[in-house]
Amino acid sequence: MTTLIIRATNGASANPGVLRRHLVFMIALSLLLVSVATSRAAAQDAHCALDTDMAVREAFATPGGADAEDRSLPLATSEHWQQLARDIFAQLIEINTTHSIGDNTRAAEAIAKRFLDAGFAAEDVEVLVPAPRKGNLVVRYRGVNPECAPLLLLAHLDVVEVDAAAWEHDPFTLTEEQGYFYGRGVSDDKDSAALHIANLLRLSAEGYRPRRDIVLALTADEEGGTHNGVQWLLAEHPAKLRAAHVLSEGAGGVLVGGERLANEIQATEKMSQTFEITVTGAGGHSSMPSGDNVLHRAGQVLVALQDLDFPVELNRVTHQFFSRSRAITDGELHEAISGLLLDPPDPAAVAFLSGIPFYNASMRTVCSPTMITGGHAVNALPQRAVITVNCRLVPTDTRERVQERIAAVLPDSVDLTALQASMTVPGISLQPEVFAVMERVTEKVWPGVATMPIMGPGGTDGRLLRERGVPVYGTNGIFIDVEDDRAHAANERIRVRSFYEGLEFLYRLTRALAQ
User: Fold this and answer.
1) What is the secondary structure of 375-426 as a DSSP string?
2) Residue ranges of the chain with pLDDT lower than 70?
């Protein structure tokens, strides 16, 4: 608009009246163009908006197999597609993708070949490599309306490091034993990756035409490392991660005593902030101890941190989580959750729930000492000790407030330093229409199982997209025993049946959200 006015001024400078009429005309024309563009955008938004009823009907309609009424769920998926998912799972587990010696690029290229062999166009299957061994795969499944923002399926190919001596099986071989799959990454996050890959190949074989594109992104270095795939793609290829909503990791089903309790949906997560507390002293010879020992004072700091509790701070996600949890619990736990939801919360209820780690982490910011170093010789009094404290902040908290609360319980003689934070402030993803689809798909696959929004106590790559306003939902439909979650641990495992149920759930959910 500025350029047009300047040109009008240059052409009408000899006649002020003509200039005014020209400017009025240009302003009116601009307003008209803006109005037309806005109307078109509104029409497009309405055309691309998610219709819950239509989405659920689409999820369970042919040609994606028999209707829900004609075949028993949750294992309606045929053995052919289950075998494909298992083969992909085994292939991914067998490729070492640890940061130290693994090769993410090799895994990305192996899966890219599967899509190319299945007939995907070369321009829709891209292995993008920012550094050796750190490749990412982006696959685009074309929908009928390219103007509708895509559905993004996000999973990471990298896994945490392995102490093979602590395993009963080869961590880089998919082992099936007594109803479980074993291997590094079977629950974080090669299970989700395998399910998304198998479902996309299935949709292609069925000739399925979604309304919006479906984009699959399999990335590097989510678990740590120097080349986080989502971060790099957002910086270098942001259009490839454009999405209306995202299905990612971060939650799944909860089994209690072998019974399905709830299907959790991660709708937000905590932010990480690390601090260092440094205690210094004069030191001296160990044979002549003084009353001021650095390690003694470091111990006092640890006691102070142990007694530090942050206030209860529920948000939209955690309030719904506790409200829905109250409906499926009983006894003392039910009473405690009811007390937590009072305004203000009942202190006795807060104290009870604080003793349960997941509930405690779900209702407040938490800080944990994770490392301590100090001293320089066995026969010398220490001159310095450093305590590392990792905090996980609720989305409504701030680094500054947490630092102030920690400082308030420390003696003046120590130094508190906030390390540079690499994690962004997470957003909250809780679109009513999307959550309603997830709830109804869950109910059809597992009748009577509650759908539960949660705040992830740890961190995922979803935070990088939420920061940009993209709604991210962490779910894979794989139910894990609440007391047997072995992600990042030795002998990592998931139930075989749960893996195939997750395949069914994500297939239906993908069809629903792609409409």
Assistant:
1) -S-TTEE-SEEEEEEEEEE-TT--HHHHHHHHHHHS-TTEEEEEPPP-SPPP
2) 1-46, 63-76, 422-425
